[in-house]
Amino acid sequence: MRRILEYGAVVVIALLLNFLLPRALPGGPMKLFGSPEALSRLTEAERAQIAQQYGFGRPLPEQFADYLTGVFTLDLGTSLSDGRPVAEAIGEALPWTLLLVGTSIVITCVLGVALGVLGALRRRRGGGAGLLGTAIVLDSLPAFWLGMLLIVVFGVQLNVLPTYGAGTLAHLVLPVTTLVVTGLGYFFLYTRSSMLTVLTSEPVQHAHARGVPYGRLVRRHALRPALLPVHTIVLMEIGFLAGGSIVIETVFAYPGLGRLTFGAISARDYPLMQGAFLVLTLMVVAMNAIADATYPLLDPRARQ
Amino acid sequence: MRALGRQGRTGLALLAVITAAAVYGLLLPDSAGTARIGEPYAPPGPGLPLGADDLGRSLLDQLLVGAATSLGLGFLVALVVTALAAVIGGAAAIGPRWLSSLIMRSIDVMLILPELILFILAAAFLGQSFGIRVAILVVLMWPVPARVLRAGMLTAWSRGHLEVARAMGAPRWWLLLRHGSYLIGPLLIPVFVRAAMRAILYDATLSFLGLGDPTAPSWGTTLYWVQVNGVFLSEAWVWWALPPGLAITLSVLALALIGTAVEERLNPALKEVPA
Q1: pLDDT over 90 percentage in chain B
Q2: Exposed end of chain B (fewer CB within 10 Å): N or C?
Q3: Does one domain contain both A66 and A198?
Q4: Quick check: A123 contacting B, CB < 8 Å?
Q5: Could you tell me if B209 lies within 8 Å of chain A, comparing CB atoms?
Q6: Structural domain boundaries enclosing A222
Q7: Closest CA–CA distance from residue A48 to any residue of chain B (Å)
Q8: Membrane-spanning regions, if any (chain B) (predicted)?
Q9: From residue B218, how far is each of A21, A251, B75, B85 by CA, in Å?
């Protein structure tokens, strides 16, 4: 119940931010309709007409009600750069982003957990230290830069993988690799430290003292409690990867929501920008809700 | 120094080198990195150790000035975030119950919101000056550290000597500061380091998207021009795209190494695991 209220609060905040930020623009919401030069060519009457048409003169609560109606009827306005309905442009781009982010999340989680457990078990051996060092380095790489390097190596020098666009599996390889590699480090570090904490915990130490064989100790006694807190990281990872998609789709000219957003930012196409951000935020919130709802499957204590 | 181990010392050494570069960058004239002093697309040569960009601006100067901007912003954000998180986390730990639950609920809500997306959104609408970027980062970044510090303060608060002192009736915040600060103080270091790390990465990402301050050279902005000009299709990427990316990676890496080392030192339990 509390979680539902929290998600409600999150959606309200996302909507409010999306509504208020354009109105907080230096120069007012009129800037939504074009560059300063273009605006300065407008006559006073034309300005008044735009303000009238979009209701900027009316009280804020009334405008907000209108905005909400628009959101719920999927009427997000029209793009300034090509005159298309924003909802249509987003509808075309969204599946591509879901594909990219979804694939990356699954691979990152599986690989991150596996390597994290391995890193914890091999803590004192060379392999473990190597894993730890690699994870810290990977965690420090800026995603967009890694993407560029991958393009240089696999696209330009070796010429084996497509570096832009989407459509085939090969197109997914480089963007997904970039997202996974930059997202993996944090996941690994967290799983590893969680596993280490559980290995020192009393139940596990007790089982160890009872003479439970090591493999069984790890599988039966340590693994499950160690993976519970990792759940929180999945939530953070979702936000991280969705944010990363803005950057990565730009680097790889991938036709998803991220690139749409970037294009809108560059063109100062505020209605499109606003709509894309709203959908991206809601996408993250929805994914979080799914991850949250599946948590009781992992932890019997959360089932009451 | 020795207490930090090899990892931590490597991190400190790296950070020292980058800080030195940043200080040198601060000493350069204002026009450094923005003035056209060479041929456009000039390869590295005398006077231009890293060549020039599409407008003939020195790439080395951009790198040095960028070091000052990045580290400056990172440390400033980290400082404010740590202070804010300490106050909010402290209030959640020893404040009245309603305040505590209000803070914890807000943190839960903030954690669901995607930071990077909101950061880009806010920067796109509110403007790109240094102060605004710092403010946005602080607003988005305080929740995680506040939660960490609250936990630390609760642990400190339950210590025996604090309980004794509490019985004497001094104000709670005074007790925490006077008798708990030696326990809480060290916790601030990893919080500070992690905040600086994330601030540097986020800010570079923002500049890479073309949302940085266009008048000030920065690592992310240089990489933005790399992307716009398709530099990686030519050999210029070696001196144009590699150095700023490496600079970002090494700065974040230095901080990460220091952070991990301090954490291991604070939590020796991490070292005593049956292998």
Answers
A1: 18
A2: N
A3: no
A4: yes
A5: yes
A6: 86-303
A7: 23
A8: 12-29, 73-95, 107-126, 132-149, 182-201, 237-262
A9: 26, 19, 16, 28
